[in-house]
Design goal:
Layout: E1 7-10, E2 13-16, H1 36-45, H2 55-69
Antiparallel strand pairs: 1-2
Helix pairs in contact: 1-2
Length: 73
């Protein structure tokens, strides 16, 4: 079975952002795509946009951008 899920890394552990059904002890392979650099670049341009945009809206746009360019649903 192959499935791509989005996770967050907290306290030394990868935590899925959606429920995952699998047996305890199942080994999986993790591919890390660090998108923080892109997010920082978007923040840099926030101040020069002609329209006012909140950090939350910028974050939503960022996630839309990443979703369109990856396999993450």
């Amino acid at each position: 079975m192959q499935k791509t899920i989005e996770v967050v890394y907290e306290d030394g552990v990868f935590k899925p952002l959606e429920p995952v059904e699998m047996e305890v002890g199942t080994k999986v392979k993790v591919e890390i795509k660090d998108t923080s650099l892109l997010k920082k670049r978007l923040q840099k341009y926030k101040g020069i946009l002609k329209v006012k945009i909140s950090s939350e809206e910028l974050n939503e746009l960022y996630h839309e951008y990443v979703t369109e360019r990856t396999d993450i649903p």
